[in-house]
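Teaching note: in complex prediction, the entire set of molecules is handled at once rather than each chain in isolation. The prompt given to students was simply: 'Predict the structure of this complex.' The entities are:
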Amino acid sequence: MNIIIIGATSGIGRALAKELASSGSLVGVTGRRLELLESLQQEISSPCYTSQFDVSNVEQSVSAFNELVSAMGTVDAVVINAGFGSIDEKLPLSQEMQTVSVNVAGFTTIANLAYKYFQEQGSGHIIGISSVAAVRGGPFMSYNASKAYVSSYLEGLACRKECRSGAITVTDVRPGFVDTPMAQGEGVFWVASPEKAAKQIYAAIRKKKRIVYITKRWRLIAAIIKLLPFCLYKRIIS
Ligand SMILES: NC(=O)c1ccc[n+]([C@@H]2O[C@H](COP(=O)([O-])OP(=O)(O)OC[C@H]3O[C@@H](n4cnc5c(N)ncnc54)[C@H](OP(=O)(O)O)[C@@H]3O)[C@@H](O)[C@H]2O)c1
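The expected output is the structure of the full assembly:
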């Protein structure tokens, strides 16, 4: 399988790139930090394509994505993993806007490009990394709202003709806590290693799952969170 991972310089994306490469996939990896892309390329012994770009820059993303696809020859799947989140209680506007730029605008750019490419090709698989946070609002509002956008977008995409017919597959990955710089703050629990998360994401890709929780037990938490009345939910979440 030829697969692009958007946001593979660290954390879940990096572990997933290694997992896929070790299973025989040809990977194309992206991110802003060039030195981390280069070190990843060296850690992966098989051929590996790299592309440095910022997903919040639409023009740059369009040309870099198209160049990466051409370099790889053909692409079977795209994982949209790049994400940003802040738990600064002061809610700096710059960080709120960065969350929206990366998780909403950047996600939309790549999802649109991947969908059009797969439409033309007649097959493909789009995997979006959302979060358990997608299921309800949270006190760091832009992050939960951005992930709700990702999951809703993916559901809409899965309703389109090519997806209903099975030509294009759409997978919504919803991690709980994974041990990366993004899982900050107190109160984190059931923290999975990036390697464990990567193995479960790879299994979900192979099985062409529509929605998958990482790790699986987070499905239960998501179901409970959805059902809680707001008066209880607001006490637990804060
Ligand atoms: N860790 C968790 O507990 C957790 C839970 C639920 C969901 N998630 C989601 O999982 C995904 C991966 O997060 P992670 O935990 O592995 O965190 P991470 O280690 O911080 O990885 C984030 C990745 O996104 C890339 N990225 C961020 N901003 C970007 C930009 N503007 N342009 C291009 N790439 C950008 C980063 O690359 P550069 O910095 O090199 O650009 C990096 O490779 C995110 O979507 C996150 O929301 C994580």
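Point out the following to students. Residues 87 and 140 are 6 Å apart (CA to CA). The longest strand covers residues 168-175.
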